[in-house]
């Protein structure tokens, strides 16, 4: 049953997408999409999930749906090859979540490391919305509704995929083989697992306001790179510098290719040489930042250009999303039927049940 390769990922429409999303997941999705090495790929905008911690700000979520869709198209996701949809428009996902709720305990959710971190990050303390607390369950529904086998995400999502796997096992053990276990697909490059913010904080995140957005202009990018967190001990150019925990070098790890040196900075032939010089001392932050800026522009310029093209026809983007939602409903609906049959809640299409009951009562 699990021999097919079905990819699925999503993003919350809580802001435009940033370079953390790009290296953590988006870049990989585009590579896979273009390699053709998959049976199906679903990418969705998780608006229902975004509402779990933005319930009083629906306009923010609504406005960002189109932003995320434009970001998808601008990085090269192609609705001709994959299905792009909006989570709330596929009610089958909500229905599936409801049944999954009985397969997970409150204490298991409390132990989920991603839930813990995200609760702390949002200062919820005791006022956690139930919907937010249970979002690993809805994520399991999103994954299993499409029988997804491969989930390309950043490291922060790993515990979510583990939780989904547990739900699948529990479901299948009670109701028989129905759902498919997913596998997480993490970036190969360690710097991309969890890209830090420009302030040096552990994760670039929309909620923390420390992002370089894919749609930032060259001017915005320039400002952000120049004010980026580096090494607080590297005060004078001559001082030895640290590359660990230094955003400029982490971003170089994530984006730099050897060919960038030939093109932009022929004094060095690769990143190791540059790092060695920085560590020894005698290499200023500004020079490194200028190099990083060129590399980021090299990567982001084609994305910005494509975005401009798609921005010219917004109705077409909504039309694309609508079509994607219809495709997604068909796929999720088929799984939901199987789930209901397995759970014995398919009363009207079970002729055997009706016959059996009539026999029982006709004999009384
Ligand atoms: P929010 O703050 O609203 O949670 P976010 O910036 O964390 O937003 P999500 O929509 O939660 O973004 O994440 C979408 C995808 O991007 C997930 O696969 C996640 O693992 C990945 N991702 C998010 N931030 C990073 C990051 N800094 N580095 C690597 N991957 C990331
Ligand atoms: Mg997040």
Topology, pairings included?
Elements: E1 6-11, H1 19-35, E2 40-45, H2 47-51, H3 58-75, E3 83-86, H4 91-100, H5 106-111, H6 113-121, H7 130-133, H8 135-145, E4 150-152, H9 158-175, E5 183-185, H10 190-193, H11 218-226, H12 247-255, H13 258-264, H14 271-280, H15 285-311, H16 314-342, H17 351-362
Parallel strand pairs: 1-2, 2-3, 4-5
Helix pairs in contact: 3-15, 4-8, 4-16, 8-9, 11-15, 12-15
The protein binds adenosine-5'-triphosphate and magnesium ion (MG).
Summarize the structure.
The protein has 364 residues and is mostly helical.
Which percent band covers the strand fraction? 5-15%
Poorly predicted segments: none
Average pLDDT works out at: 94
> What strand order characterises the main sheet?
1-2-3
Q: Which ligands accompany this protein? A: adenosine-5'-triphosphate, magnesium ion
Structural class: mainly alpha
Beta strand count? 5
Biggest beta sheet summary: 3 strands, parallel
**Large-scale geometry:** elongated
Number of helices: 17
Terminal-residue CA separation: 44 Å
CA radius of gyration = 24 Å
Specify the helix fraction band.
55-70%
What is the chain-wise order of helices and strands? EHEHHEHHHHHEHEHHHHHHHH
What does this structure look like?
The protein has 364 residues and is mainly alpha-helical. Helix content is 56%, strand content 6%. Adenosine-5'-triphosphate (ATP) binds next to β1 and α1.
């Amino acid at each position: 049953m699990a021999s097919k390769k079905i990819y699925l990922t999503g993003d919350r429409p809580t802001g435009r997408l940033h370079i953390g999303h790009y290296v953590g997941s988006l870049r990989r999705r585009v590579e896979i999409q273009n390699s053709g090495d998959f049976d199906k790929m679903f990418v969705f905008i998780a608006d229902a999930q975004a509402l779990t911690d933005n319930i009083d700000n629906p306009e923010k979520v609504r406005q960002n749906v189109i932003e995320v869709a434009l970001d998808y198209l601008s990085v090269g996701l192609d609705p001709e090859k994959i299905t792009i949809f909006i989570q709330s428009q596929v009610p089958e996902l909500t229905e599936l979540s409801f049944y999954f709720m009985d397969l997970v305990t409150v204490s298991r959710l409390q132990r989920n490391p991603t839930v813990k971190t995200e609760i702390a990050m949002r200062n919820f303390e005791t006022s956690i919305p139930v919907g937010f607390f249970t979002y690993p369950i809805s994520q399991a529904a999103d994954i299993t509704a499409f029988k997804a086998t491969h989930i390309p995400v950043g490291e922060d999502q790993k515990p979510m995929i583990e939780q989904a796997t547990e739900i699948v096992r529990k479901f299948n053990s009670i109701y028989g083989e129905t759902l498919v276990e997913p596998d997480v697909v993490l970036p190969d490059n360690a710097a991309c697992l969890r890209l830090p913010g420009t302030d040096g904080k552990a994760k670039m995140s929309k909620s923390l306001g420390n992002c370089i957005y894919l749609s930032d202009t060259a001017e915005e990018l320039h400002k952000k790179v120049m004010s980026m967190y580096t090494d607080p001990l590297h005060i004078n150019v001559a001082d030895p510098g640290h590359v660990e925990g230094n955003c400029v070098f982490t971003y170089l790890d994530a984006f730099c290719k050897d060919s960038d040196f030939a093109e932009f900075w022929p004094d060095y032939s690769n990143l190791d040489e540059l790092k060695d010089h920085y560590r020894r001392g005698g290499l200023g932050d500004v020079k490194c930042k200028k190099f990083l800026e060129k590399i980021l522009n090299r990567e982001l310029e084609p994305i910005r250009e494509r975005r401009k093209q798609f921005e010219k026809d917004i109705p077409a983007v909504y039309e694309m999303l609508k079509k994607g939602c219809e495709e997604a409903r068909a796929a999720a609906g088929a799984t939901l039927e199987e789930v209901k049959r397995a759970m014995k809640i398919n009363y009207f299409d079970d002729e055997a049940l009706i016959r059996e009951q009539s026999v029982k009562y006709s004999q009384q």
